[in-house]
Amino acid sequence: xxxxxxxxxxxxxxxxxxxxxxxxxxxxxxxxxxxxxxxxxxxxxxxxxxxxxxxxxxxxxxxxxxxxxxxxxxxxxxxxxxxxxxxxxxxxxxxxxxxxxxxxxxxxxxxxxxxxxxxxxxxxxxxxxxxxxxxxxxxxxxxxxxxxxxxxxxxxxxxxxxxxxxxxxxxxxxxxxxxxxxxxxxxxxxxxxxxxxxxxxxxxxxxxxxxxxxxxxxxxxxxxxxxxxxxxxxxxxxxx
Length: 240
Known about the structure:
By secondary structure, the chain is α/β, with parallel strands linked by helices. It has ten helices and four strands; from the N terminus they run E-H-E-H-E-H-E-H-H-H-H-H-H-H. The chain folds into two domains: 10-107, TIM Barrel (Alpha-Beta Barrel); 116-238, no CATH class.
């Protein structure tokens, strides 16, 4: 491949198939021998999926073993985590996947620092997503204005939006004691600070569908579905 194209060829690998066959160093060296000009390492085996934290020590082993830039990937949700992993691993850069799906503003944070974003600010970002998606799936309105969604476009946009809402709800801010939520488990210590923040944090199907349709139809989130989970009911009450 390297001989056939004019652009740099890079390779992304995992640590192996499972814990008994962690062959990441052999694979990384083979990729470099074959002409790869950078290696991205996701710090899990294929079998581990997302059940365990990413192994950044293994990523650091790759960075120390090959002569090309290594990009580390796994469990990056806050800007301080990115800085720490870069220093400790020796990687040239990082790749962010789930972190960007849970909080699309993470790239701004990498430039300006942690953003204690409000629920209204989050909604502004989510509405911008809908605007961009409408431009992609909508039909031109001609002289009447920008693109509009017909039934065809709506049927294609809504599943994508609903999928994103199911990830956006996982966001939780820094804890009051200064510690940070972990990506691998739901943040049980988070107490929403407003009714809208409580709604955006709900993971039940009714709430996810409601938020999706409010975003799609420019709704005001004023009539959320009732909460049936006792835990979420208590959180909503504390939020006011």
